[in-house]
Amino acid sequence: MKNRFLWIGIAMLILSNSFAQNAISGKVIDENKQAVFLATLALYQEADSVMMKAVTSDERGRFAITNLPDGRYYLVASMIGAKTVQVTNISLPNKET
């Protein structure tokens, strides 16, 4: 099986509702910029590597992880036959927006 590379585009969203919950969303694509269906995305706390949530990408490569408390995280995307990708230094709420 050909080794595929995954790329993750992540948009940090801070939802402004009465509960002030955060969300992370984005798109997983391969080296040919094609959407990756059913990639696994797992979000971990940076301090202790405890997994917070895991989701899979949809047929368009999109994913969303919602209802997250403020904190520092890293995201790991993986799929059978593809190189695992890690995105670090995710801070919620994102003070840069």
Keyphrases for this structure?
97 residues, mainly beta
How would you describe the overall organization of this protein?
It is a single chain. The protein is an all-beta fold. It has strands at 4-14, 22-30, 40-45, 51-56, 62-68, 71-78, 82-83, 85-92. It is globular, with a radius of gyration of 14 Å. Strands 5-2-1-7 form a four-stranded mixed β-sheet, with no helix packed on it. The termini are far apart.
Briefly say what this structure is.
Helix content is 0%, strand content 59%.
Helix content: under 10%
- Derived structural class: mainly beta
Count the beta strands.
Answer: 8
Given the C-alpha coordinates, what overall shape results?
Answer: globular
Order of helices and strands: EEEEEEEE
Number of helices: 0
Main β-sheet: number of strands, strand sense, barrel status? Answer: 4 strands, mixed
Low-confidence stretches: 10-18
Strand order of the largest sheet: 5-2-1-7
List the helices and strands and how they pair.
Elements: E1 4-14, E2 22-30, E3 40-45, E4 51-56, E5 62-68, E6 71-78, E7 82-83, E8 85-92
Parallel strand pairs: 1-7
Antiparallel strand pairs: 1-2, 2-5, 3-4, 3-6, 6-8
